[in-house]
Write a structure and sequence with these properties.
mainly beta; 29 strands
Length: about 300
């Protein structure tokens, strides 16, 4: 079928999935009822922002919206479905109602090389209000950035995404601008830096990413990783290739443990406050860097 052009698109479908995959040109998504299957909408033919102004009810099915290389704005309307996936050049979640998304939310720029920020200043930015909306969502899994994406992600301020959620951040590299205290809060945090060799996660000193998480995994394409935490964490399967894995604990009682294999050219640890135990897996570490650990 051909792409459509409309000011507002409204749909009621009781007979199955709706796969509107042409390069449509629609300004506003109105009321969408599609409880009998997934709702997929491609708006890559648009010349302006796509706004969601009315409820979208996909029942227990998926909602997938691609705004192409234009912005996407979610209004204060109920979105109901098992998952929500969006791609756009920019996104506004300030008034979003995500309480009806039950399983996962996946938000990414439409171009894999686009830069991103959390509470920052990039064009593709999830501001503090948007971060709060993600935290309040029923979904237990939050994925930000394209899988394999190579745009840098900047942590512009503290980002509390919920202490029980599984959060996956995909980017080329990660920075907090060398500012301590821009803490990322999650239950399980997965950090994936995809730029070869130079795709670091954090930097030395105050540039280390501050974490308040139960567990974290860090994977790079050869870049190094710099993580710091007040309370410690469990390290899941992590592979930094030719890079160095740098871990720091800054407060009494902070333990470092592992639940997955660690692969790195070098490992450096600073934890004089709690126990450090990386003996439970068959790790692949070429050399040990500076180790300052007072526990076991």
């Amino acid at each position: 079928s051909a792409a459509m052009t409309a000011g507002t698109f409204v749909l009621t479908n009781t007979g199955g999935a709706s796969n509107l995959s042409q390069a449509n040109n629609v300004a506003t998504l109105g009321a969408i009822t599609n409880k009998s299957g997934d709702f997929t909408f491609n708006n890559s033919g648009s010349s302006s922002t796509l706004s969601i102004s009315s409820a979208i009810d996909a029942g227990g099915n998926k909602i997938d919206i691609d705004a192409g290389n234009k912005a996407l704005t979610l209004g204060n309307v109920a979105l109901t479905g098992s998952s929500l996936s969006t791609k756009s050049s920019a996104i506004t979640l300030t008034n979003a109602n995500l309480s009806g998304i039950s399983t996962s939310i996946n938000i990414a720029p439409s171009v894999a090389t686009d830069k991103m920020s959390l509470a920052g200043a990039e064009t593709f930015n999830i501001d503090a209000a948007g971060i709060a909306k993600l935290k309040a969502a029923a979904a237990t899994s939050i994925i930000l950035g394209q899988s394999g994406g190579t745009g840098k992600m900047t942590i512009g301020a503290a980002a509390d995404l919920g202490s029980t959620k599984t959060v996956t951040l995909n980017a080329g590299s990660f920075t907090d601008g060398g500012n301590a205290g821009r803490t990322i809060t999650a239950g399980t945090l997965n950090l994936n830096a995809n730029t070869a060799s130079t795709g670091d996660i954090g930097a030395s000193g105050n540039g280390a990413l501050d974490l308040a998480v139960t567990s974290v995994s860090a994977n790079t394409a050869g870049g190094s990783v710099f993580l710091t935490s007040a309370k410690g964490f469990d390290l899941g399967a992590s592979n930094v290739g030719a890079g160095t894995l740098n871990l720091t604990v800054t407060t009494t009682g902070g333990d470092l443990t592992q639940s997955g294999v660690i692969k790195a050219n070098s490992l450096a640890v600073s934890n004089t406050f709690g126990n450090t135990d990386f003996s439970t897996k068959d790790n692949e570490i070429a050399s040990l860097g500076t180790i300052a650990a007072s526990g076991k």
